[in-house]
């Protein structure tokens, strides 16, 4: 099949060849612009909470420039002459200089874009769009990338490049370039897919199987990213539980207990109802009234010992396990504070306490 350049109509080749020769002459000067805008984008993140994994940049290669400049539009009328999609590629192409910002998680893509767009003294954002190769709406999978089209403002390095363009070009210091922001997994997928799909000119080697496998790997990576995002949010929530001056000070209302429990122990949630009032009463009986105190109580090691000591025949639900953990921690005090005149509950608690004492070896 050949490249676009190889298939280009003979009448259009001289114009593309002339533009390519001019780009070949200018590219070394343009590389200085690439380095400058990369450094300026990287500097935006200095001291910011968000730290990208890396920021890289590239100046489009001469071969890639010629290939993109060779794109054509369908004739306006059947049988008409084709025309170039980019008749003035040095002016029309906005990806001659490209910067990539690679982050860890999907939510950081948005944060990075917002930080860059706020640097209005250096850049003017001309466009901001999601580029999805696959989407929820279409029911397909692929990589997702945030694309910003930025224009420099009175940049001295750009003025030097514009001076090399010739007398007919004003040296304004304004230059349009592209910034791509994506996650590390999306970046890896797109790089591998691009190497296999687009760098192989002979499309006869392609098959539906390869499309299917790329789609499958994109789906797997999306699932992995979702899991990493969920883990990140859960970790932030748990960290907040231990902040005694922040989230950790939130009172233990029933709804709050449910939230803390389901965050710390999502695997122990076999409640027949959504009433956490009894749990609030049990905790209040011991003066446990804040989120941090509940997080401290629900220690994973203690829970493991409790379950081993009691050897539950059935996996306990939240109410029963909370009761057992309080019994493990407070012993006889828990029985006296919560059994009251309920003889059946008192007997059950005393039986379980003896099992715990035997396990501990202090019976």
From TrEMBL:
Residues 57-204 form the RelA/SpoT domain. Coiled coil: none annotated. This is GTP pyrophosphokinase family protein. It comes from Arthrobacter halodurans. The lineage of its organism: Bacteria, Bacillati, Actinomycetota, Actinomycetes, Micrococcales.
């Amino acid at each position: 099949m050949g490249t676009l350049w190889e298939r280009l109509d003979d009448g259009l080749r001289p114009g593309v060849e002339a533009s390519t020769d001019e780009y070949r002459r200018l590219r070394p000067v343009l590389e200085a612009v690439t380095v400058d805008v990369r450094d300026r984008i990287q500097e935006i993140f200095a001291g910011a909470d968000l730290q990208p994994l890396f920021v890289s940049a590239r100046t489009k290669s001469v071969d890639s420039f010629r290939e993109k400049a060779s794109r054509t539009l369908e004739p306006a009328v059947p049988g008409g002459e084709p025309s170039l999609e980019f008749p003035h590629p040095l002016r029309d192409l906005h990806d001659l200089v490209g910067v990539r910002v690679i982050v860890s998680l999907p939510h950081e893509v948005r944060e990075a874009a917002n930080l860059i767009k706020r640097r209005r003294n250096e850049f003017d954002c001309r466009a901001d769009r999601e580029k999805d190769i696959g989407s929820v709406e279409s029911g397909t999978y692929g990589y997702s990338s945030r694309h910003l089209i930025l224009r420099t403002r009175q940049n001295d390095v750009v003025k030097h490049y514009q001076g090399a363009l010739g007398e007919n070009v004003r040296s304004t210091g304004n230059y349009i370039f592209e910034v791509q922001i994506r996650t590390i997994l999306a970046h890896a997928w797109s790089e591998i897919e691009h190497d296999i799909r687009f760098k192989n000119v002979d499309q006869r080697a392609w098959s539906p199987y390869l499309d299917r496998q790329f789609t499958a790997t994109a789906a797997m990576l999306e699932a992995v990213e979702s899991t990493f995002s969920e883990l990140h949010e859960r970790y932030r929530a748990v960290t907040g539980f231990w902040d005694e001056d922040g989230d950790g000070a939130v009172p233990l209302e029933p709804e709050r207990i449910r939230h803390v429990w389901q965050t710390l122990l999502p695997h122990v949630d076999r409640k027949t109802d959504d009433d956490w009032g009894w749990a609030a009463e049990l905790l209040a009986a011991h003066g446990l009234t804040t989120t941090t105190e509940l997080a401290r109580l629900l220690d994973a090691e203690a829970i493991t010992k409790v379950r081993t000591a009691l050897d539950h025949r059935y996996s306990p639900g939240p109410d029963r396990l909370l009761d057992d953990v309080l019994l493990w921690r407070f012993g006889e005090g828990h029985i006296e504070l919560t059994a009251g005149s309920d003889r059946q509950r008192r007997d059950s608690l005393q039986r379980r306490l003896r099992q715990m004492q035997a396990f501990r070896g202090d019976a």
